[in-house]
Sequence to fold (464 residues):
Amino acid sequence: MSLNTEKTIKFSPMHRLQWEEAQQKDVILYPEGMVELNQSSAEILKLCDGTRNLDQLVADLEEKFATTGLKNDISGFLEVALGNGWIQQN
Amino acid sequence: MAGSNKTNITPPRWLLAELTYKCPLQCPYCSNPLDYAQHSDEISTDDWKRVLSEARKMGAVQLGFSGGEPLTRQDLPELVQHARELGYYSNLITSGYGLTEEKIIQLKEAGLDHIQISIQASTQDLNDHIAGTESFHSKQEVARLVKKHGYPMVLCVVIHRENIHQMADILAMAEELGADYVELANTQYYGWAHANRDLLMPTQEQYQEAEEIAQAFKEKVAGKMKIYYVIPDFHEDRPKACMNGWGTTFLTIAPDGVALPCHSARELPGLDCPNVNDASISEIWHESKAFNFFRGTEWMQEPCKSCDEKDKDFGGCRCQAYLLTGDMYKTDPVCSKSPDKHIITEAIESARLSALASNEKPLIFRNSKNSKAY
Fold:
């Protein structure tokens, strides 16, 4: 399974992404488990709402953080996220 | 107190809420205490809400509603809703017995995140025999309904000598039912399973064969279904890192409000496990004798004390050390460095001989009548 760059990306309805006050971190929750996210991973996942494909996601994040050259890092992380079932593509 | 280092107390992350010891099933490997019938008090809805609130404030986020059968508590939807409002990720750990579609919808609306259903075997005869209750078809129906209503579905199968030969069929059944996760829980020998160990423990060969089947299946369904494999620790060289370390991560509250560092800890002598009616969760977690008893490594004896793996497995399981050696401070006898390793070897051999005997004694089923004998 690998990322389709044309299709939109959405966070899996079988997982939950939430901010944990006690840990001061965003986490992914799923049956019997929890993954702690660093800030950049969390920012990527928060934009996975089914309206953006890879390029649109990269453009929005680069604009938000006023930077360029994020595409490789973002697509690398999304491949991991897809492999773990955190995101889906229709 | 055995010793603690209070400067390094991490907050609880997992809360196991054992709402009740009542259960329509009679599984002979149940991890509830043998004398559960003596602990029939149940704390109130308001007590549970307070427990959930206090633990959440400290940082607990994974929540299991367990038992017994948690569905027997009429206030379950109210507790689920409270948990959702607090931001827990909540799991109903159920036999599925008596779970109607109406209830599944009601719990979904209340905010339940996922449901874990136990199935005892891949065939009706064996399932109903082990469960002590006719339940095979209703469990399958419940599994389908859980999927239908959009929950992640976890199928939990406790593995032992009576069903280990069904491994391939159990996995095929899980796939057919559309499970998102399958927990293959090799029996851990506490509570009722300890009492029935000679009848439940598979041989090394049976474990190996079953594990190979599970491993091949895991690769086949990668990306579709996740397999959690609870290892049969009697057949390992090193003990499990029980509870991720005492008082570091897990908090169990028993039906009567007793707070436990692990669900089996009330079997240990002299811990004076506190009750949520007498102290806040924060006081219990930080200050109580029970939660500090085996924190850190200062309590350890040799060979753990000077072992370079002590921070990895924490000396194994305290309850297992106590059940098998009578001394809860000892190295978990599972460890090959333990001077008590022969107890494990003998237990495995005893179970093997029991399986060969023509007059094998019957299983002791978990029910109130049998519990009152303890």
